[in-house]
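Researcher: I'd like a candidate sequence for this fold, 377 residues long. If you have to choose between options at a position, lean toward the conservative one.
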């Protein structure tokens, strides 16, 4: 017995849903405008390579990741097309952009100089995308530095300014004026180099693709919508017209034990819950170690036999308990669903996120990247 047995906890990814979501979002975008698929965070917990393949099946040929290591892994897995590295690279890593045909997003002169030097050594040129800070106060040069950086790139051999990038800080909120003001800052900056710049502009994330399509420019960069969720946490907004985006992730386990306890029994660490009646409990091998947040103690719900039941008491490292008093015939080994559908009921990442005081993105990453994943077509 050398093989390691499977965990009871399984993430199931519906790859057809990912493909559907790419096609659906694509239908929102005018012909001639590109749609990059963000697959950072191991594809928002869905598996970077499998997610990229599913989007490619929907027509995607441009991908984005945060770090260089992710881009190299993606390329080594046979993904073709353009791969953007969004958050820079270390001094000694510039060669990877050439050996693995990766596209750098730059925001420091040092990184531009390093890429220029490597390009000259290799007797080739490389396309750079310059990042502008349009109000996020994260990566990017300030808008009034755009000419200086464009000139710097122009003067160096081996490097071409192929794009100007920025990122919206509030596009998930269709009512916020933040997106319009950020877009004005960004457009004004692009305007200042229009005589010399012939590359592409891209700033629109999922929120902007869904709520502010007039900001698409030459390319959108979508993440969360491709995984079936609206960035504002509202399920009703996860759609293009009448076509719904489909969540692709399910998280389920197998019940480890069923037990009956009398009224007045404390449940789990600290006895933060005490039964008020004779209670039947399902004990499940899911805890915060599996990415299921402890702050959901006494708040979470789980699907058993197609019924939503409450999680009682603290969520432990590897275990939690649900109240199945109202359900008959639950057996050890039965499926319990923490995220996704069972029967006609569903628990979404937005439902979990709302209870945990966070956003669907974090729930998808935490569950997806802490459990064994199975991809189905
Ligand atoms: C993550 C990310 C996106 C995609 O954001 P979503 O809200 O998931 O659509 C786009 N651009 C950059 C720079 C990002 O980091």
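Model: Candidate sequence:
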């Amino acid at each position: 017995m050398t093989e390691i047995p499977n965990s009871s906890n399984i993430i199931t990814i519906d790859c057809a849903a990912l493909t559907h979501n790419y096609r659906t979002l694509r239908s929102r975008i005018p012909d001639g405008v590109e749609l990059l698929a963000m697959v950072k965070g191991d594809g928002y917990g869905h598996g970077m390579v499998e997610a990229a393949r599913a989007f490619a099946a929907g027509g995607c040929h441009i991908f984005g990741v945060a770090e260089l290591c992710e881009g190299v892994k993606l390329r080594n897995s046979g993904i073709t097309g353009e791969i953007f590295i969004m958050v820079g690279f270390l001094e000694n890593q510039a060669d990877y952009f050439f050996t693995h045909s990766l596209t750098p997003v730059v925001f420091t002169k040092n990184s531009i100089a390093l890429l220029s030097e490597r390009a000259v050594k290799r007797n080739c040129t490389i396309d750079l995308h310059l990042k502008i800070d349009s109000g996020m106060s994260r990566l990017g040069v300030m808008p009034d530095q755009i000419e200086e950086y464009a000139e710097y790139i122009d003067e160096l051999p081996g490097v071409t300014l192929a794009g100007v990038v920025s990122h919206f800080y509030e596009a998930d909120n269709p009512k916020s004026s933040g997106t319009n003001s950020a877009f004005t800052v960004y457009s004004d900056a692009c305007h200042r180099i229009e005589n010399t710049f012939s590359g592409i502009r891209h700033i629109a994330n999922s929120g902007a693709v869904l709520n502010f399509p007039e900001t698409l420019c030459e390319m959108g960069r979508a993440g969360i919508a491709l995984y079936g969720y609206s960035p504002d946490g509202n399920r009703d907004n996860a759609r293009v017209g009448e076509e719904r985006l489909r969540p692709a992730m399910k998280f389920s386990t197998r019940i480890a034990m069923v037990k009956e306890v009398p009224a007045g029994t404390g449940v789990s660490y600290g006895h933060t819950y005490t039964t008020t009646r004779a209670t039947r409990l399902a004990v499940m091998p899911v805890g915060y170690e599996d990415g299921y947040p402890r702050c959901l103690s006494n708040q979470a719900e789980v699907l058993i036999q197609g019924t939503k039941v409450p999680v009682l008491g603290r969520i432990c490292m590897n275990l939690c308990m649900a109240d199945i008093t109202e359900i008959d015939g639950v057996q050890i080994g039965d499926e319990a669903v923490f995220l996704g559908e069972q029967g006609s009921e569903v628990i979404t990442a937005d439902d979990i996120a709302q209870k945990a005081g966070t956003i669907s993105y974090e729930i998808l990453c935490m569950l997806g990247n802490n459990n064994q994943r199975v991809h189905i077509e």
